[in-house]
Design brief:
Layout lengths: L4 H25 L5 H16 L10 H33 L5 H18 L2 H19 L9
Helix pairs in contact: 1-3, 1-5, 3-4, 4-5
Pfam families: DUF4064
InterPro entries: DUF4064 (IPR025273)
Protein name: DUF4064 domain-containing protein
């Protein structure tokens, strides 16, 4: 039986980052007609003017806020799924029960979220991919004793 503390630690680190990712999504959903939303929209308009975007291509304030809310929902769903995957994989890795299944699950989740290329998700995806590879390829030491 192999000690899987490193894999479990990496999964927990990934879960923590994904949890933070979910909190960020929750704040995006709660954007209303407040100062933060107005500041974000003004920054969006400034960036668009620097890039010389045509005025008819710019979003209105309501469209901007709705896009933030939609992105927030997507981020929360992805965060919840990846945290659940992390919990399941920790349970499978604990006591070296099913490391191969945990490795495949972690690799699939890490690669899927990594392809979405949210920067913070990319960091957490790396934790999941490394833990998944370690779970798949680490073998118990074979003693040559009698």
């Amino acid at each position: 039986m192999i000690n899987r503390k490193i894999e479990i630690f990496l999964v927990i680190m990934g879960m923590a980052v994904f949890f933070f990712f979910g909190v960020t999504g929750a704040t995006m959903i709660n954007v209303h007609d407040d100062e933060m939303a107005t500041d974000l929209y003004e920054q969006y308009l400034e960036d668009a003017s620097v890039e010389e975007v045509a005025e008819e291509d710019l979003s209105t304030y309501d469209e901007f806020v709705e896009a933030l809310r939609t992105a927030g929902i997507i981020i929360i769903v992805l965060a919840v799924i990846t945290v659940i995957v992390g919990i399941v994989s920790v349970l499978l890795l604990r006591n070296d029960k099913r490391p191969k299944i945990a490795g495949v699950i972690l690799l699939a989740a890490g690669i899927f979220i990594g392809f979405l290329q949210f920067f913070i998700a990319l960091v957490a995806s790396l934790f999941y991919v490394i833990a998944g590879l370690m779970a798949l390829f680490r073998k118990p030491k074979i003693s040559l004793g009698e």
